[in-house]
Design goal:
Layout (H helix, E strand, L loop, with lengths): L7 H7 L17 E4 L2 E4 L2 E2 L13 H23 L5 E12 L7 H16 L6 E7 L8 E9 L2
Parallel strand pairs: 4-5
Antiparallel strand pairs: 1-2, 2-6, 3-6, 4-6
Protein backbone atom coordinates (compact mmCIF):
# COMPACT_ATOMS: atom_id res chain seq x y z
CA UNK A 1 0.00 0.00 0.00
CA UNK A 2 1.17 3.53 -0.60
CA UNK A 3 1.70 6.39 1.78
CA UNK A 4 -1.39 8.62 1.52
CA UNK A 5 0.75 11.72 2.16
CA UNK A 6 2.71 11.18 -1.07
CA UNK A 7 1.08 12.85 -4.08
CA UNK A 8 0.08 10.78 -7.12
CA UNK A 9 2.48 12.82 -9.28
CA UNK A 10 5.35 11.96 -6.90
CA UNK A 11 4.42 8.26 -7.07
CA UNK A 12 4.46 8.46 -10.88
CA UNK A 13 7.87 10.18 -10.81
CA UNK A 14 9.18 7.34 -8.61
CA UNK A 15 8.27 5.00 -11.47
CA UNK A 16 9.92 7.26 -14.05
CA UNK A 17 6.55 8.19 -15.56
CA UNK A 18 6.08 11.72 -16.87
CA UNK A 19 2.53 12.57 -17.90
CA UNK A 20 2.70 14.30 -21.25
CA UNK A 21 -0.40 16.24 -22.34
CA UNK A 22 -3.21 13.99 -23.52
CA UNK A 23 -3.78 13.43 -27.21
CA UNK A 24 -6.61 15.18 -29.01
CA UNK A 25 -9.68 12.97 -29.60
CA UNK A 26 -9.77 11.16 -32.94
CA UNK A 27 -13.48 11.82 -33.43
CA UNK A 28 -16.49 13.79 -32.29
CA UNK A 29 -16.17 13.14 -28.55
CA UNK A 30 -14.46 14.55 -25.49
CA UNK A 31 -11.72 12.84 -23.46
CA UNK A 32 -13.67 13.20 -20.19
CA UNK A 33 -17.18 14.06 -19.07
CA UNK A 34 -17.72 15.39 -15.58
CA UNK A 35 -21.09 15.15 -13.92
CA UNK A 36 -21.21 16.19 -10.29
CA UNK A 37 -18.19 14.68 -8.55
CA UNK A 38 -17.68 11.93 -11.14
CA UNK A 39 -15.49 11.94 -14.22
CA UNK A 40 -16.12 9.37 -16.94
CA UNK A 41 -13.16 8.91 -19.28
CA UNK A 42 -13.18 7.94 -22.92
CA UNK A 43 -11.33 4.74 -23.77
CA UNK A 44 -7.55 4.87 -24.08
CA UNK A 45 -5.26 2.42 -25.82
CA UNK A 46 -1.53 1.87 -25.91
CA UNK A 47 -0.04 2.39 -29.37
CA UNK A 48 3.04 0.37 -28.38
CA UNK A 49 1.18 -2.93 -28.01
CA UNK A 50 -0.61 -4.09 -31.14
CA UNK A 51 -2.16 -7.49 -31.69
CA UNK A 52 -4.16 -10.25 -30.08
CA UNK A 53 -3.62 -11.68 -26.61
CA UNK A 54 -3.29 -15.43 -26.80
CA UNK A 55 -2.05 -15.22 -30.38
CA UNK A 56 0.43 -12.37 -31.00
CA UNK A 57 1.07 -11.19 -27.44
CA UNK A 58 1.86 -12.81 -24.08
CA UNK A 59 0.07 -12.12 -20.81
CA UNK A 60 3.12 -10.08 -19.72
CA UNK A 61 2.91 -7.91 -22.84
CA UNK A 62 -0.83 -7.48 -22.24
CA UNK A 63 -0.10 -6.45 -18.65
CA UNK A 64 2.29 -3.79 -19.96
CA UNK A 65 -0.30 -2.64 -22.52
CA UNK A 66 -2.91 -2.24 -19.77
CA UNK A 67 -0.42 -0.29 -17.66
CA UNK A 68 0.32 2.03 -20.58
CA UNK A 69 -3.40 2.50 -21.28
CA UNK A 70 -3.85 3.47 -17.60
CA UNK A 71 -1.04 6.01 -17.95
CA UNK A 72 -2.89 7.47 -20.95
CA UNK A 73 -6.08 7.75 -18.88
CA UNK A 74 -4.10 9.50 -16.13
CA UNK A 75 -2.83 11.95 -18.76
CA UNK A 76 -6.45 12.84 -19.57
CA UNK A 77 -7.36 13.19 -15.91
CA UNK A 78 -4.35 15.40 -15.22
CA UNK A 79 -5.41 17.63 -18.14
CA UNK A 80 -8.94 17.82 -16.76
CA UNK A 81 -8.05 18.34 -13.09
CA UNK A 82 -4.61 19.95 -13.19
CA UNK A 83 -3.60 17.93 -10.12
CA UNK A 84 -4.18 14.20 -9.63
CA UNK A 85 -4.40 14.79 -5.87
CA UNK A 86 -7.98 15.91 -6.58
CA UNK A 87 -8.91 12.27 -7.29
CA UNK A 88 -10.93 11.17 -4.28
CA UNK A 89 -11.44 7.59 -5.50
CA UNK A 90 -10.99 5.43 -8.57
CA UNK A 91 -14.50 4.01 -8.72
CA UNK A 92 -14.56 1.68 -11.73
CA UNK A 93 -12.21 0.40 -14.42
CA UNK A 94 -13.38 -1.24 -17.63
CA UNK A 95 -10.58 -3.16 -19.33
CA UNK A 96 -11.14 -4.45 -22.84
CA UNK A 97 -8.69 -7.04 -24.13
CA UNK A 98 -8.21 -7.83 -27.82
CA UNK A 99 -8.11 -11.59 -27.40
CA UNK A 100 -8.14 -14.89 -29.22
CA UNK A 101 -11.29 -16.97 -28.81
CA UNK A 102 -9.62 -19.38 -26.39
CA UNK A 103 -7.88 -16.69 -24.30
CA UNK A 104 -9.27 -16.56 -20.75
CA UNK A 105 -6.70 -14.58 -18.75
CA UNK A 106 -8.26 -11.13 -19.20
CA UNK A 107 -8.01 -10.33 -15.46
CA UNK A 108 -4.24 -11.00 -15.47
CA UNK A 109 -3.86 -8.54 -18.35
CA UNK A 110 -5.93 -5.76 -16.76
CA UNK A 111 -3.97 -6.19 -13.52
CA UNK A 112 -1.37 -4.02 -15.29
CA UNK A 113 -3.75 -1.08 -14.96
CA UNK A 114 -5.09 -1.97 -11.51
CA UNK A 115 -1.63 -2.45 -10.00
CA UNK A 116 -0.51 0.95 -11.30
CA UNK A 117 -3.63 2.73 -10.02
CA UNK A 118 -3.28 1.26 -6.54
CA UNK A 119 0.41 2.18 -6.46
CA UNK A 120 -0.27 5.76 -7.60
CA UNK A 121 -3.37 6.46 -5.48
CA UNK A 122 -2.99 4.04 -2.57
CA UNK A 123 -6.32 3.00 -1.06
CA UNK A 124 -8.06 5.61 -3.21
CA UNK A 125 -6.99 3.54 -6.22
CA UNK A 126 -8.77 0.35 -5.16
CA UNK A 127 -11.67 0.02 -7.59
CA UNK A 128 -14.43 -2.13 -9.01
CA UNK A 129 -13.45 -3.63 -12.34
CA UNK A 130 -14.55 -5.53 -15.40
CA UNK A 131 -12.11 -7.28 -17.74
CA UNK A 132 -13.65 -8.45 -21.00
CA UNK A 133 -12.39 -9.96 -24.23
CA UNK A 134 -13.21 -8.50 -27.63
CA UNK A 135 -12.54 -9.65 -31.18
CA UNK A 136 -11.03 -6.31 -32.19
CA UNK A 137 -10.08 -2.90 -30.78
CA UNK A 138 -9.29 0.43 -32.48
CA UNK A 139 -5.94 0.48 -34.33
CA UNK A 140 -5.54 -3.26 -33.57
CA UNK A 141 -4.62 -2.28 -29.99
CA UNK A 142 -4.10 -5.02 -27.41
CA UNK A 143 -5.99 -3.21 -24.63
CA UNK A 144 -8.45 -0.35 -24.24
CA UNK A 145 -9.21 1.11 -20.84
CA UNK A 146 -11.79 3.52 -19.45
CA UNK A 147 -12.40 4.68 -15.90
CA UNK A 148 -14.85 6.41 -13.62
CA UNK A 149 -13.26 8.51 -10.88
CA UNK A 150 -14.73 10.53 -8.02
CA UNK A 151 -13.05 13.90 -7.52
CA UNK A 152 -12.85 16.48 -4.76
CA UNK A 153 -14.83 19.68 -5.29
Amino acid sequence: MTNNVTSPETRLEELGIVLEPARKPLGNYTPCVRTGNLIFTSGQISDQYIGTLGHDLSIEEGYDAARQAAINVLRMLKGELGDLSRVKRVVKVLGMVHSALDFTDHPKVINGASDLLVYVFGEKGIHARSAVGLAQLPKNAAVELEMIVEVEE
